[in-house]
Amino acid sequence: MSKPKPKIKKEAVPMSKQDPKKRRRNFNEVAQGYTKEQVVAEAERCLQCAKAPCVKGCPVEVDIPAFIDLIREHKFGEAIKKIKEKNSLPAICGRVCPQEVQCQVYCTMGKVGDPISVGRLERFVADWERKQQPEIPQRPASTGKSVAIVGAGPAGLTAAADLAKLGHEIVVFEALHKPGGVLIYGIPEFRLPKEIVEAEAKYIERLGVKMKMNSLIGRLYTVGELLEQFDAIFIGTGAGLPRFMRIPGENRCGIYSANEFLIRVNLMKAYAFPKSDTPIYVGEKVAVVGGGNTAMDSARCALRLGAKEVRIVYRRSKKEMPVRAEEIENAEEEGIIFEFLTNPRKFIGNERGWVKAMECIRMRLGEPDASGRRRPIPIEGSEFTMDVDTVIIAIGRTPNPIIQQTTEDLQVTKWGTIIADENGKTSIERVYAGGDIVTGEATVISAMGAGKKAAKAIRKYLKKN
Amino acid sequence: MYRIVKKRKLIPHTNLFKLSAKEIAAKTKPGQFVILRVDENGERIPLTIVNADVEKETITVVCHEVGKSTKQLGNLKEGDYILDLLGPLGKPAEIKKFGTVLCIGGGVMAAPLHFQAKAFHETGNKVIGVIGARTENHLIFVDEMKQVCNELHVATDDGTKGYKGLGFLRDLLEKRKIHRVIVMGPVITMKMVSEFTRPYKTPTIVNLIPIMVDGMGMCGACRVNVGGRTKFACVDGPDFDGHQVDFEELMARLKMFTPQEKLALVFHEAGGKNA
What we know:
The structure holds 2 protein chains of 2 kinds. Chain A is α/β, with parallel strands linked by helices. Chain A contains 16 helices and 16 strands. In chain A, strand 11 (355-368) and strand 12 (374-378) form a beta hairpin. By secondary structure, chain B is of the alpha/beta class. Chain B contains 9 helices and 16 strands. Chain B starts with a strand and ends in a 6-residue tail after the last helix.
């Protein structure tokens, strides 16, 4: 009699999180990661489908079944190597990729129960490797060809890593004082510890990539000047400009763009003030305007900085929020208050120029708009006043414009994004672009995917020329 | 890391630094600024560039100590290094032949004003220079300005040297044909001069360095209301039409972190990190 096959668990192994009551006042990571036992148990749920449908949901084409299989065999070192064949930032992707709308959507297990927690598995092996003596990657012989990468965000770092692995000389020009782009200035410590971003950037340096900080391309060198020194250029300058509401009183003290707020907190570590020199002010009643990941991050930072009440003020309803479900849940657990179908009309100040209240109007949802979401329409006569002493505007970011302004012949859209084909090729020979600077504000992993595609195209070009 | 090649005390609590910065020096134009960070915990400090020497591969800045970060910079010596230096930032000043240009510098901003005055002079303008300070002992860059100005006036708040206050400018504007006015200095000075020139419709350029973090358009902390529209001083400026700037709003915004700045200073003076 053959042994009956053990029944595969339909439910994913849960990952432990810091207690909401505690974590709402600290900046330590919320999600705690799997243990060795948990990671193997979750890996064992994988059906190892021959067609690997999950892979088509991965913008960087990680061989997901293969690395899961290695985890199942406790071969964590080989599992991470397998991931790194395609993805140079696994500890980051394991944390911030929206797997639920990517690889996991296609997971066969998802049809009968929970899909495999691909991100949690990826995170485990990446963290496991960081704690060991990570292997020094082999550097191939130099091809003598050089590529300048503009911007050390997810797109740029991915392109840099892929091209360095081929033996090209890579110099990354980053305007800020640390590499990582949005990973270092935007995403907070409690979701993505900066130590991890630094470690992954180090790994890319060890691949032979030269990182040049404090170098704002467009001002220090133009793209034209870089073309004289490099065989090709990749532009991954991102969407880093804050969008404001353009309503009265928006420049009052106490009103931040989400970018300013997050740059102070994350890049400049204002939460450690005065040990860290950059200050931040957070009052008792905070309103965060917007409904995306940046709004969530800002709200949760404000809470951790001591605010009594933090409200997310969003003009549509919960269903339309462009945010990971997991982040809404985390925010709710921590006590963030949601004011849906509400939009500010103006900011009211005190005699010293500080914001003290926000006039809002209630909204209702009409027909779907261009984004496919139902359009919010103001309900006249529903105006009311909300007392606030701090406001964070998190309604989106627009492309960084300096390269476009200083590069002749570079074709751009009316939204300021750079025009590039699906391989990242721009209107200028030898100049490629990818990530938010081409698509407008999107996700870390889609930027990485664009960096990867452009790297492939650059590789082809360099081979030919 | 960027080396302090030269340090010179101009007046108490105000130092001139020459920093080794080959790439920045090659690109700098008058009116632009840099952002620097002293060390790993440091703030990003914006400073207007005072001079750039392409041959010696240096840029010059002047720093007046007001808070913790600027005091920390002031304590560095020749040969020391600062951690980060980003620039040149902002749009360069519009330098061309206007005719007679009145260049007014208040306090430490007389130093970067000299960079512009020199450029105006070299472009064939007649340059009337004005340096203002609290007292005679606070005046800087007088000799340097003399060399690039067709005439130079000095004013002090207390009258210890030259004119008492800037009121004399009214007279000067009334009597002389001025084609352009450049003001660099405390916000209150820029506001006052803009009011003086308004009746004459003399184009008046003010150089604004509000509170900023990244200095390249990302944070929006430096937003100023210019003619009813929000502009970012770091990328749309730092030069703006003084007749259009909402100085009241700018002054309020400059005070946004005053309590924190005071706290940082107390903490620093009590022994720094371990206090």
